[in-house]
Structures are given as structure tokens and as C-alpha cells.
Amino acid sequence: MSETNSAAETAAPHRYTAAMAADIEARWQDFWDAEGTYEAPNPTGDLAGDPAQVAKPKKFIMDMFPYPSGAGLHVGHPLGYIATDVFARYQRMTGHNVLHTLGFDAFGLPAEQYAVQTGTHPRVSTEANIENMTAQLRRLGLGHDKRRSFATIESEYYKWTQWIFLQIFNSWYDTEADRARPIAELVEQFENGSRPTPDGRDWSALNAVERADVLGEYRLAYASDAPVNWSPGLGTVLANEEVTADGRSERGNFPVFKAKLRQWNMRITAYADRLLNDLDGLDWPEAIKLQQRNWIGRSEGARVDFPVDGADSITVFTTRQDTLFGATYMVLAPEHELVERITPVAWPEGTHPVWTGGHATPIEAVTAYRKLAAAKSDVERQAEAKDKTGVFTGAYATNPVSGEKVPVFIADYVLMGYGTGAIMAVPAHDARDFAFARAFELPMRCVVEPSDDRGTDPSTWEDAFASYEAKLVNSANDEISLNGLGVVEAKAKITEWLTEHGVGEGTVNFRLRDWLFSRQRYWGEPFPIVYDEDGIAHPLPESMLPLELPEVDDYSPRTFDPDDADTQPETPLSRNADWVDVTLDLGDGNGPKKYRRETNTMPNWAGSCWYELRYLDPNNSSQLVDPAIEQYWMGPREGRPAGGVDLYIGGSEHAVLHLLYARFWSKVLYDLGHISSAEPFHKLYNQGMIQAFVYRDSRGIAVPAAEVEERDGKFYYQGEKVSRVLGKMGKSLKNAVTPDEICAEYGADTLRLYEMAMGPLDVSRPWDTRAVVGQYRLLQRLWRNVVDEETGEVTVVDAEPGEETLRALHKAIDGVGQDMAGMRFNTAIAKVTELNNHLTKAGGPLPRSVAESLVLLVAPLAPHIAEELWRRLGHTESVVHQDFPVADPAYVVDETVTCVVQVKGKVKARLEISPSITDEELEALALADPAVVAALNGAGIRKVIVRAPKLVNIVPA
Fold first, then answer.
1. Is 60 exceeded by the pLDDT of residue 439?
2. Which of 178, 442, 731, 914 fits a 20 to 30 Å CA distance from 121?
């Protein structure tokens, strides 16, 4: 604050200044902590409170989990936290039992990378970051129930993360019941023969390894050798969602390659239909729902089997099974598991030279091409490249409807991440297949009659012909003909034929892939899994949880040359032999045995998949959550049959990561009877972003924004001209403003008001430190309307307010209440400002009733000054739990409105009338007005059109 402002503010000893704000805010924050002001009682258990309080309607309000960064907060971070706090305070004042708290999502890569660089244990740096962030948030006056806060790195928290993993591991999805069931019930079906084993043998005839393999095909958490996204530069594998569009790691921007590794997966695909269908019942932004629908990617089609050499079959999924007669070759993804099995040692006689890629043998060709494909991202592989690449495997498959032998290629434009990783190529009717067929001189057959004049010989076409409107041609065998049928009819008919002949069936496919759940990191939750000498995975009994993360000297996974795809992970935990190799009695009747622990850790998403449940019952050491407590806070209600958190605020960037994963975990826990809410978050609200100007020098390097000077509309740093663009705020961009700075200069209440007043909550807005003073002045005027700046005495009087003031007050109460309920905090502040200005202009001491209502209106937005003024007005109870003012409808309605009276369409009079006037009364008043009488000049009246209370239109005869 400038010296001039500082001198002016100290002239009056009791003026509201930054120093006074700091004193007020610190005192009330201490008071709230000591009194447990924000503690929300649970209906049962150790946290049960006043029964009358529990009887109130509940409101569970949440922010998305923050990660405790070492950089601390900048003013953009608290936007959502302040908004939920304002909303929570308003809900308390309107009679709700409000649960609002905040924990920390504290596992993850940044702390581990910092540990690698500095040698500081991740726990040490993380706990220091949490302490710093907690202090910053406390200074903002956030009304959190601190008893319920936790960090995911606490062993008593991740004990239950591990427990949930075991629930998922010990479950399978029963497609007939459409829900998860305990794996023990599946074993019982195999034992009693009601469900046959894959090879038909009795369950008792299978050895332990074979049984484990069978169950692994059903478990919702399973380990498998599968293609993964391997980042040598990070030394870990990544989920699809953690890989950028250009095929690099989201963290660190390292190249990502396809590799085959044994990893833990979550069978989220079993829930694809439910995850899709249940979106309809959620109060979420449509844009987020659309992103989830697209990510899940449901499509209806058929599975078709193409036999290969009488031994294997290549299974494809297609949405255009009607074009099956036009399939003239096949393409497998380079990573497909069948590639090695079907590739012969020598090229078949007559192999086209173009198909071999210049290699002497199919094995050489396939090996070389696989290496090239592994270096490309999925986006690069699917791009519309001018030149299509691929290589013949040397194998042929049989088209099941035509009996024709078709060559099998591998090509990078086919991905394992969609369908079956194999396609039947119908080049006449698919643009990519057409280009590939041209490049490799493959045959094309028209089976969908073109609607233009190109004819039916694809060799003369410039591109493929694709249509859902045309008729089928050239599509018949001795048993079935699709000729002359439309696409819909043809698809139904061929699907029925495929099913009857056991070579396919109608099916639904999803873009969604199973969730890769392993990370080759140290700073994450250990898996509660051990392996016996046969490599069978065994879950730890609940009595052994939590399995705590051991201390290690070297936190880093082994990293490699970022561009070297021919590498394998080595995890930090694998180097800790005393922890990895253990002798345990798992309580399964086999006594103590030697086991090897799982050395991967869970991804950073694990802890945030269920944290809303821990907020409900944070000290429960005997069960995940007390059922009565969960039912009270999150159980189904009218209008929300799936239950869930009442309001969840956070960024839209988590649409297909955290939100999808959390929904999956909730559904599993719901199916197994552990919770009553099938969805975690009923209402989702995405707040906007606070942006800031980024200044860059001629090299493109960001320079400190605070040191940039503006001269004649141009910007200079240390005398050099710099560019300016609006962007994100952050330490790396050198434009971050910390909340501590603003609190020190103006106070936390001013910061809260400014962030809420900047614009609608769901849109991004630019930060302007110079504009903060506007909200500071509002608080000063508010203070001045209640407190004498010279004496510090309250100036209110016990007198009735005038009618004009009553109308201004009750209109503000009505408008602010509606805006608060609708989270339109910027317009609520505008209405408070308008009322405060009215009271300032009216002059004289405020009537006590008006002053108290004004303080209550401000309380959700600026709680510290409101608490101070409420106490100075003589109240001994906190303002936090006072009733929000209720508007008197008589004063909300305008006393009069202006009615326009027209004669021949021209305005002749304006009448100030009651808004409740009737048409008949208004017509009489208009016709009696002297100006109207003069305008009519004795003429008769043909028609009078009355639109009470705003318009009368008189049409003379």
C-alpha cells in the first residue's frame, strides 16, 4: 500500500484498514477453531452432535482435492475454495447442516521428482507443503470442518485405499445380474458345475495356477501382459489419459512408446454401459457429460471370426457387418498377440513384392515394422498420412461369408486400443482402407451401390464410397443374399447368419479401455498383494493392512534414454530386498510361506477415487464408513436416485480421469453393499480460471510481470520492449500473485470479495491487482455505516427505517438470496454494494434492524468483518449460524410503475400507477388524463388496448 494511502487510513484511529483487517481476521479464525464453529455433526457414531442440528436438512459441499505444491498458492487457486465457502455459509444460514472440509491428494510424481533432485524424503517435502498450504487457506477464512481433513499419504487413509483395491480384486462382474459380486460366489459356481470352466474340465481337476488364471479372466482387478504406454524418460508406464495428443508424457513431456509389460488393470470396461447410462441422472455440465460419453464411446455392431490356417481365428469388431462380402484383406495392430503365432518362417509362394517391405522373411518384416510403429503415438498412427505403411505377415485368413482367402497385414493405423486390434478391410467403402489397398495393390470389391455416376468398379474410383443410404450389391452366397437390401436390414440379416453359423454375433463395443493401474514409482500406495513361488497373486488379509510404504535410500525408478524404446522398468521398491521377500501366514490354512511383494505402486488417482467417503467418517478404523453416516450425507434422495455429493466444484480438466475413475469405484462399492450411493457426485460445477498477463522478451522467455512498466500502451522490462498475452497464472510464467500479498495489503475479506466479484464463477477472468481496491472501499464504507471511525463506537439507533430504505433493504435481501442460491456471487455483491451505497447516501445513523440485516447479507462473502460487526452490535453468538434475512414481499414489489399511454401509436402521457392495477382501472385513468383528452379532441374511440400495468394504446374512431 502506498505511503499516501497508509497516512490517510491512519488519520482516523478506528478506520477499517489492512492492519485492522489482519487483527480482526486472525482473532475470528482463532475463535472459530476454538469453538468448532464449522463442525458438522453426524447422525451416529463418535461425531454425533446436537440432535436438533442433525435433524436439519443436510448439504455436502466439496472441492476437488488439491495437491500440496511446493510453490504454494497463487490467487487463482482459491477461486473455487472461496466459492464453495460462500455457498456453504449461505446454506448454514438457511437452516442446513453443512459438511464442508478439505484434504490433500498428496501421493504423486512431483514430490518424488523433488526427492530425486534433493535427497529430501517425499514425506518431508509433502508435509511441509501441506503445512504451508493449510496456513494460506486458513488465512482466507474458509469454514472447513478441520476434524475431517486428512492427506492420502496417511497410513490410516491408504489402509482403506488398499482395502478397496482388495474388494475390487476379490470381485467379478456378473453380466446376468448386471452388478459386481464376490469372487467366492464365482468359485462356488465353478465348483458345483453350474458354470463350466473354459476347457470343460472339472474345477477340481485344475491346479492352483490354472485356477488363478481362470479367475484372472473375471476379476475386476487383474494383472496381465498387455500393451502399455512406456516412458523410458520417466521410467514408468502411463494410462492412456496421461499421454498427450502428440504421444508424450503429460508430466515431463517425454516420448511414450508401446511396450508389453505385466501390469495391474481395473476392469472398468465391465461398467461401460452403466457409466454411460447413469450420466443422465446427474446434474453435471452437458460438456462434461459429452466428454465422458465420447471417451466411453459406445458403438453397436458385430463380432466376426476369420479362421487362419484352421488353427487360430482373427476376431474383428465392425459396425458395418453388412459390407462383409467386400472384405478383401485384413489388418492387425502391430502389437496384436496373434502376429507372432500366425507369421510363417518364409513368404508364401507368389507373395507380391510390395507386400514384403523388402525383407527376406516375414519374421524380419514384422519385427522391423513393429519397431517403427512403437515409436509413434496413437495420434500419429491415426493421422491421415499421405503414404500408408504396413507389411504382410505371410498369413492368410478366410472370409467366413465368401470362403475367400484374404492376406493379413500389420499396419500402424490399426490400434489395440479400439475394438479387437484387428479390422476386416473393405477398401471400396473406407477411405483409409482404400488408400492402403492402392499403396499395396490389393483387390477392391464394391458391395454398396454408389449413388453417383462412378460405377461399381473401384479400380476406376478416386476415393472410397461410404453411405448408410445405399443398397447392397455383390453380397450373396449359396445360403444368404443381401443384394437389394438397405444397410439397416442387411446388418440385421448378416448378423443373424453369423450367429447361426457360429462365426460371429451382434455385439456392442466401447472405446473405453481397462484402466492401467500400475506405476513404477516409489511415492504411491503399495499394492496389498504378494506372490507365491508359482507366481500366483494372493491378497493380504485385512488384519495386515495398512501395508506401509517402506523407507528407501533411492526414490527414483530407473530411467533411460527417453528415445530408447527397448528398455524395461525397474522400480524403487524392487531394490529393497528385506521388504520384497517375506515369510507370511495369510490365514488361508497353508501356514507361513515365502512370498514376494508387488513392487509397483498404485497411480496417483487411487486416493482421490473415494475421498468423499472418508470426509464422512474420517476416524473410523474398523470399517470404510459407517453405513448410517454414509446414508445420511450421500444416500439417494428424491430427484437424485443414485445419491452423491450435493455440490462438487472443480476444473473441467478432470472430465475423463478422476471423475470417471471415481464413478467406477463408487459403483463397485455400491454393488458389494458397502455404500448406498451408486454415484459419488450428484451436482458438478466447473469454475473458470483466473488468468494473468504473461510478458515475454525477444527470446520468448517470461519476465517478472511485477517489474514490467507500461509506457504509451507498450510494455518494457529493464528498458527492453516485451510482448504481453493473457494466459495462465503460475510461478514458471513469473506472473503469480500470492493470496498472502493481497491479504497483507487489503485483508482476506477484500480478496474474497474481489475474486467473487470478478465475473460469473464459471467463466475465466483476468486478474487486476489495481481493481482489488474497489472491494476494499466497499468494506470500508460498510464499516463506516456501523462504526464511528473516530471513537470506535457503534452508531446504530433503535429506530424504524423509512419506507425508501425498507424497499432498498428487502429488494437486496430478495436478490442476494436468489443469487447466493444460484452461485451468482458477482451479482450478489453488486446488490450488496447498491444497498450499502443507498445507506451511505441516506446519511445519519442506521436503524439497528437495517444494520443487522446488512451484516447478515455480507456474512457469507466477508465473514471476518461480518463476525466483528455482529459482535459489536451486541450479539454473543457467532454470525455463522444466524438465519439469513427473509425479504418482505410487500417491499420487494415496486411501489409504482410507469405506464405509457399512446394515441394513434404516439406517446401522449405517462402514468405512475400501482403494479397491481386492473385493466379496467387503468383504462379509466388513461381516458381521464388531460393530455389524452386533449389528444383525442372529442373524437370517438374505436378500441382501447390495455396491457396492465405498462401500456395503454387508444385507437380513435
1. yes
2. 731
Domain boundaries, the chain: 180-270+516-597, 298-510, 691-727, 894-956
DSSP letter (8 states) at residue 801: P
| Lowest-pLDDT range of 47-61, 250-264, 725-739 | 47-61
Element (H, E) at 228: strand 221-231
pLDDT tens, residue by residue, 354-411: 999 999 999 999 999 998 888 776 667 766 556 789 999 999 999 999 999 999 999 9
Let me know: does 736 contact 730? Beta carbons within 8 Å. yes
CA atoms within a 13 Å half-sphere pointing along the CA-CB vector of 88: 29
Using the predicted structure, report yes or no on whether residue 239 has a pLDDT greater than 90: no
Q: Which helix (H) or strand (E) holds 490?
A: helix 487-500
Contact 114, 56 (CB under 8 A): no
Q: Are strands 906-913 and 702-703 parallel, antiparallel or unpaired?
A: unpaired
CA distances from 725 to 246, 697, 729, 738, 763 (A): 25, 12, 11, 20, 18
SS3 690: strand
DSSP state of 548: P
Strand ordering across the sheet containing 897-903: 906-913, 897-903, 951-956, 941-947
41-75: burial string, b at 16+ Cβ within 10 Å, e else: bbbeeebeeeeeebebebbbbbbbbbbbbeebbbb
Once rounded to an integer, what is the mean pLDDT over residues 917-921?
89
Exposed e or buried b per residue across 223-260, where buried means at least 16 C-beta atoms within 10 angstroms of its C-beta:
beebbbbbbbbbbbbbbbbbbeeebbbbbeebbbbbbe
Helix spans in 720-802 (H): 739-746, 748-757, 772-786
Among 46-50, 102-106, 114-118, 473-477, where is mean pLDDT lowest? 46-50
Cis preceding linkage at 949, omega within 30:
yes
Element (H, E) at 171: strand 171-174
Rg (CA), the chain: 35
Average pLDDT of the chain to the nearest whole number:
92
**CA-wise closest residue to 785 among 853, 861, 884:** 853
* Matching CATH number, 298-510, of 3.40.1190.20, 3.90.1150.10, 3.40.30.10, 3.90.740.10: 3.90.740.10
What cell was used for 551?
Answer: 523407507
Residue 312's pLDDT is 82
Average pLDDT over residues 267-279: 97
Which percentage of the chain shows pLDDT scores above 70?
A: 96
Question: C-alpha angle with apex 85: 83 to 87, nearest 5 degrees?
Answer: 70
| Tens-digit pLDDT profile for residues 177-187 | 999 999 999 99
* Burial of 698 (C-beta count, 10 Å sphere; 0-12/13-18/19+): exposed
CA 85/CA 624 separation, integer angstroms: 27
Degrees, nearest 5: CA angle 938-939-941: 125
CA nearest 409: which of 373, 385, 384? 373
Q: 544: which 3 cell numbers? A: 495386515
Burial class (CB in 10 A: 0-12, 13-18, 19+), 479: exposed
Measured CA to CA, the distance from residue 593 to residue 583 in angstroms comes to: 5
pLDDT tens track for 577-602: 999 999 999 999 999 999 999 999 99
Distance of CA 305 to the CA centre of its chain: 38
Q: Cell 438465519 maps to which residue?
A: 883
End-to-end CA distance of the chain: 72
Q: Measured between alpha carbons, how far is 573 from 598 in angstroms, rounded to an integer?
A: 9
Residue among 158, 190, 185, 155 at smallest CA distance from 173: 185
Single-letter residue type at 631: Q
* DSSP tag of 796: -
β pairing state of 581-584 and 593-597? antiparallel
Architecture of domain 894-956: Roll (3.10)
